[in-house]
Amino acid sequence: MRRVSTAAIGLRPVVSTAVGLFLLVLSVSPPPASAEDWPQWRGPGRDGVSTETGLANRWPAGGPPLLWRIDGLGEGYGTVAVVDGSLYVQGTRGGRSLLFALDASDGRVRWERELGSRLRDGRGNGPRGTPTVAGDSLYALTGVGDLARIRLSDGRVAWQRNILRDFGQRNISWGISESPLIEGDWVVVMPGGAGGAIAALDRETGATVWTSTGLTDRAGYSSLIAVDLEDGGEPLRAIVGFTARAGVGVRASDGELLWYYREPANRTANAATPIYRDGLVFYTSDYGTGGGALRVRAAGDNVSTGQAWFQSRLRNHHGGVVLYEGHLYGFFGSALVCVDFETGETVWRDRSVGKGSLTLADGKLFLFGERYLAGLAEATPDGYVELGRFDVGNRGRPTWAHPVVSNGVLYLRNWDELLAYDVSP
What we know:
The protein is mainly beta.
């Protein structure tokens, strides 16, 4: 395993030979004014937005201080979940898919668990998803469909099943990429197909609770979200997803199809997680397609829909979109773009760090370009204002894992390494 020379900068290296990870520790970050865990894909609200405040308003030349890094996660594009001082992230070793539990203060391994064979793919082997933490367990899904409930305390597997085999599906072209959704007592995933396009499983046992009806699409590469559709009375709970053919919504109680929105879907890869706010659902995909907002109205169990707007230039590949103070921010094509959520009109666009992914915290956009550039910018419709950037280095694969901001720390997964930066003041 490659080691980094620390003599010139006075760093303290520690090697954990039991797990084959190289650990480089620098210092411990103080918490921000308002800290927050990041228990799942795209954070607490599954929308890429953190409520943390008191973060640094600008980065120094060369980027924020590096707290620590580990080298040896193996292959994969999944990022971290952060809960109660621990990090959970997927990787590989020796052709197998693994889950690691790390100490958030220094990156040391607390435990690791093998979940089965790894995904093999020309675009990069290994898992794509982020673990979901709920209660005393986490739920992890590998690129080949192995879904497991794992105890946080010691990494013991409580149950495991393969959602492709169990629901009669073959894998999608570049491997399962979703992160499991916890909805009450259930874990909800998208196997795809007539046997269970979307399926709810019992969190405790893994038993199937329901499979969606009226929906037979193959799975997309997107993760599901759960929303409340307001109708002036009791909200109607819905599971919102992006299949291989359409943006969809199903009733959370039983999986019945509520809407099917073809316009923003392509036939190659629908990957971006949907955005929902105040009756508007936004879906976006690349491959020459674009993004559209669907107006959803609920009256009891009855749902009516109509397209609010569609813009062919709003093509997001897999880097995701965030919504902040009435504006969408995301990499559409190779540029960072600000869009009015109600109208779909572009407010500004800038090359920024190049095509990539992003997270929002403390009114700022934490950017991660796929060609190794990380950046910080203001989340404002007034124009692109950059507050810092730095290069994380080429590890042989694009930097496709999304950034995470939690408890004053920026976490960046760069293929086989994980880096933690102090972004507190």
